[in-house]
ABC transporter ATP-binding protein
Amino acid sequence: MAGTEDHRGETSILVDSVSLTYTSTSGSSPLSRFRPGQGRARRTQVHAVRDVSFSVTRGEFVGLVGRNGSGKSSLLRVIAGVEPATSGTVYARSTPTLIGVSAALIGEMTGSENITLGCLAMGLSPAEVERARPAVEELAGLGAAIERPMKTYSSGMGARLRFAISRASHPEILLIDEALSTGDASFADRSRRAMDEALEDAGTIFLVSHAAQTIEELCTRAIWLEQGRLVMDGPAEEVARQYRWFAHVLAEGDEEKALGLLNDAHAENRRQYG
């Protein structure tokens, strides 16, 4: 819970010239790789994140916005420490907690059992798990389904449970790599209250989305990525507006105009922030 000391303004995350490059292997078909002389696999370098730098202070809610494949999830994984950066460094004042669609919960176990597993994995004692359980179940809002195997859940139900579990340990840095719009309006309200409480405690939240509206509604600040590069970093409303217009122009098929908008946004960001 929040103490008497206000930690807002203190640096929570520093991303310093981070790049992430990996090798992708492709061939004409999976089987062709086992046939001598046929379908030789090609190895290509994928630049997922390109020389990205920024700092985030405690109490900020930062949205990462961009098209599919723009590097949002890759950057979040680097910040979380799940993926080592090829170059550059991430400094964090505490260990980030990453929530993603591939979070390590077990499908054969019930939701209730996964609450135990997830909370223990985050370092809670068995007694702390039991004290946290009612709040986790209430936030997830799964009702009787909490006693069903998780493999029977929809993707939205799984997302709700993962988010609820993550809040049990009150992480200082929370990284969300999936939409929280899954579920009904009641869950949306509960999740927003939980995030507001985290920010009041001078926590830091990152939210990945390709939807400008989601970023605009939830976040105070936004970072726009395109092909692994940081295009714009600023107030969520302004970044969302620029990104929304870029996406609209691109969808209309005017690639030249879209490229101009991209370059203008990047140039304006450099003028403001260097």
Observations:
- The beta strands are 11-26, 42-57, 61-65, 87-92, 97-100, 173-177, 204-209, 221-226, 229-235.
- The two ends are 37 Å apart (CA to CA).
- The CA atoms of residues 22 and 46 lie 5 Å apart.
- The mean pLDDT is 85.
